[in-house]
Amino acid sequence: IKSTVYAALKLCEEKTFRSAAFPALGTGVGGVPPAAVADAMVGAVADFAKKQPKSIHLAKIVIFQPEMLTHFHNSMMKMQGEAARSKGFMSTIKDAVTSLFGYGEEKEPRKTLVLQKEEFEPAVFQLCGQNKKDVDLAKQRIVALIQKEQVTRIIKDELVCHLTQADMADLESLQQQLTISIQLKEGLDEEEPSICLEGLTRDVFLAEPAIRSLLLRVQQRRTQKHKAVQMSECVEWQYQDPSGQMVAFDAQSNLLLEEALVAHEPVKLKINGETYQANPAFKMAFSSKREEVELLRVDKKAVLPPYWTDMGESLFQLVCLDSSSGDYKDVEQKMTSRGLRLNILKIERVQNVTLWQTYQVLKGSMEKKNGHTNNEKQLFHGTKAAVTDFINKYGFNRGYAGMHGAMYGNGTYFAVDPAYSVRRYAKPDALGHQRMYLARVLVGDFTKGQQSIAAPPARDQARPSDLYDSVTDNEATPSMFVIFHDAQAYPEFLITFT
């Protein structure tokens, strides 16, 4: 029974099914005791969940006889009891099986926007006067003063639809603290989702930046989740459980380990519910009790450019190009082809295995989605010396988008003409040296951008989730492009000049 259920789940995964349902196998004509069936079926789901399936997310066991529910419930409880003695198995039950059986942590954003409206104690005015005219005039002045002190602000943002229950709780708390009314609108048809704030002017003006900060956290959370999923397609980090079996980390821990490896830094993460200090370079993790756990890094897609300098086991290297090399001359030609004359001090090639693999995964997905391969451009990005180390190791970050304005959207900007990047964004350091990247950018299918948008618009209003890949200032003759996913650009060459 166990092998049959496991094989069925494996087949569903291969066919990219989202869910599977099973009857209580063998309890009828087969005559197998219900308790044995429960142990076998739940055990099969647990074993399959260890593999961290990408497609199937829900497994249901359909039970027609009410008395059998007890056996399946006891089977789950028994596994949790065993987990107290074997924490490795507990992580499987908690982190994987719960999601397959359809319960556990909140994984997806909430689908409906409902915020409990705060009720406030009304203020009562008693007006007395010599005649009705004076009373009416006083009433009008009071109403005018109240209206003068009240304001309505509307924040439009597609991220409103991705608020979680925790985000909603933060909004309810803000509503209570500042004596304001917050209304959420999902946006129908072509209308953009929004948050409407009403209340005293001072309170609304305090609430607005707090809500924009919350939406920024939502964007960062979604970006991090997207980045973690992409990373898991390139690299898989595993740890050894007490039985000696290698178990894959969840996507977020996987990303933390890979970033720590590139940065040559330790990182704290959870293994079997306990906090460990992991050293990815030495493939070991240590608990506060000095318990050791062995780590393993599995490289899923190790195809790197053949012209890269050999790095051995290293994942990152900055290679200074010889002025006579082909790469150097190619970059130099791209900079001077539009009449730009600079004193180039050095050109460095950024060899970052993690960023390159993530970029290539997204490139392949974009080619499949768009049905063509004309998605990539080489574009320029001027910056200051203080952030080049971060970009070299972690890539471009949309968090800096608002630093230089966001005329066509809150994303990362790239220029077709290097002179634009030199003039506007390549800030000189104390020695007068300036920096600029020649980057590979996945512009894909693009359209004209709009100020302060957080994502590209939909290609077809009938399919709001089908977005353009990037935006530009001019569809016919673009001079710049804006991307909204950090993995859409690879910082291939860093140019230092005066």
From TrEMBL:
Residues 304-498 form the PARP catalytic domain. It is found in: Nucleus. It comes from the Eukaryota. Residues 1-80 form the Macro domain. Its EC number is 2.4.2.-. InterPro entries: Macro_dom, Macro_dom-like, Mono-ARTD/PARP, PARP14_KH_8, PARP14_WWE, Poly(ADP-ribose)pol_cat_dom, WWE_dom_sf. Gene3D superfamilies: 3.30.720.50, 3.90.228.10, Leucine Aminopeptidase, subunit E, domain 1. The keyword DNA repair does not apply. One of its GO terms (cellular component) is cytoplasm. One of its GO terms (molecular function) is transcription corepressor activity. This is Poly [ADP-ribose] polymerase.
